[in-house]
Design brief:
This protein has 204 residues and is mainly alpha-helical. It has a single domain, classed as Tetracycline Repressor, domain 2. It contains ten helices and no strands. Helix 1 crosses helix 2, helix 5 packs across helix 10 and helix 7 packs across helix 8. The longest helix has 29 residues.
Length: 204
């Protein structure tokens, strides 16, 4: 019962955070949204920071599983890239950039988990993908996989920076899509470009 209660609280909190950001949502708001007492929430989470950290930990584990699934179901690097783009569209389409800002500014524990995941999982996965792509002839052999992997990961974070891309002027998903497409076409060989175009036509 407690695990289902914890999951329910985390899911309810996520729904509010994605809509309004983290800072503006109180534990009272979460309790009201879930139709439960604040005392019940505090039985499982000592404060909002602990709840945010638990939420981020859960989402990162889900993201890691999703990445593994994408890799396993893709027949080559280009298909992996297209599948990653479709997966990214779903994720970025529902993320409020304020969530990233609030997590970085007010929840250092959660932000630390995010940064570790970025360095240990995402960057390593990208390095492996780029190396495999070079072997398959889809990625330019002169590409430095370590530099490009780090650049791409930080590029995603930059796309959420509201100082660079104000919400009033830019759609978050369009920003992320443009950055990703620019990256994909920049690293590919002619062979990679051709296959990338084929997959884009199939999936659009």
């Amino acid at each position: 019962m407690s695990n289902s209660q914890i999951d329910r609280i985390i899911i309810g909190a996520e729904e509010l955070f994605l809509t309004a950001g983290i800072k503006s949502v109180t534990m009272d708001d979460i309790a009201k949204h879930l139709g439960m007492s604040k005392k019940t929430i505090y039985h499982f989470f000592s404060d909002k920071n602990e709840l945010v950290t638990a939420l981020v930990d859960k989402k990162l584990k889900q993201d890691e599983c999703q990445i593994v699934d994408i890799i396993n179901m893709s027949s080559n690097v280009m298909e992996e890239m297209i599948n990653m783009m479709k997966c990214s569209e779903e994720i970025f389409g529902r993320i409020n950039p304020i969530v990233i800002h609030d997590m970085q500014k007010y929840h250092p524990d959660a932000w630390g988990l995010f940064q570790s995941f970025k360095a240990d999982v995402i960057t390593k996965t990208l390095e492996d993908l780029l190396t495999k792509g070079i072997t398959q002839g889809f990625i330019r052999p002169e590409v430095d996989v370590k530099i490009l992997a780090k650049m791409r990961v930080n590029q995603v974070e930059m796309g959420f920076n509201t100082h660079i891309f104000p919400i009033a002027q830019f759609n978050t998903w369009k920003v992320q899509y443009q950055l990703l497409e620019h990256f994909n076409y920049g690293i590919c060989t002619i062979k990679g470009h051709e296959l990338l175009n084929q997959y884009k036509n199939i999936h659009t």
